[in-house]
Design goal:
Layout: H1 3-6, E1 22-23, E2 28-31, E3 40-43, H2 46-56, H3 71-82, H4 88-102, H5 105-111, H6 120-125, H7 130-147, H8 168-181
Antiparallel strand pairs: 1-2, 2-3
Length: about 180
């Protein structure tokens, strides 16, 4: 799991993401030598790019992009503010669960930096452009942002549990099944 490393925490001996790993013009961060022994381009949503740019400002390329000393304390602070009790890997699982409803399996696998392994289709036939992958990151970021929007004007309380969205083909299948039952 590389999510924590984005914040500067060195879990599993991976190097922290440095300011120099950010390509603000291209809207991406390169995660070096990941668990599957390859570099991974993390294509940033508009929201993530804005955060990365703010953190990179006035920092040297060799400095951590997110200079968090103790990721556990940061996560504890976030949990206290949000009224949750999620742990580090739970964030990754939550992201994957949200993304699974919004993007194709091939895009999700690449977003999660999972190797194609024995999947011949993904490994040899299905190609995804950077634009397609970036669109996947953006739709997930937009969904999370909308789910975290205040419940009413002036509120700082987060909405609980975003509504599940289904893919268009699933909605059509549900409609046709409902019509057949009637």
């Amino acid at each position: 799991c590389r999510g924590i490393e984005i914040h500067g925490h060195k879990k599993h001996g991976y190097p922290a993401v440095k300011v120099g790993d950010l390509d603000a013009q291209g809207g991406k961060i390169v995660l070096r030598d990941t668990k599957n022994r390859s570099d991974h381009k993390l294509l940033l949503s508009r929201q993530a790019l804005e955060l990365a740019r703010k953190n990179a400002a006035k920092r040297k390329p060799e400095e951590p992009l997110f200079p968090i000393v103790d990721a556990r304390k940061t996560l504890a602070w976030i949990n206290a503010k949000a009224g949750t009790s999620v742990q580090g890997h739970g964030l990754r699982a939550t992201f994957a669960s949200i993304a699974e409803e919004l993007v194709s399996g091939a895009v999700l696998k690449r977003m999660m930096n999972h190797a194609a392994g024995d999947d011949v289709t993904l490994g040899h036939y299905v190609g995804k452009s950077e634009a397609q992958l970036r669109a996947g990151w953006q739709v997930v970021a937009d969904f999370i942002e909308a789910a975290a929007a205040p419940t009413y004007a002036g509120s700082t309380r987060l909405q609980r549990g975003p509504q599940r969205r289904t893919r268009p083909w699933r909605r059509a299948a549900v409609r046709s099944t409902a019509a057949a039952v009637e």
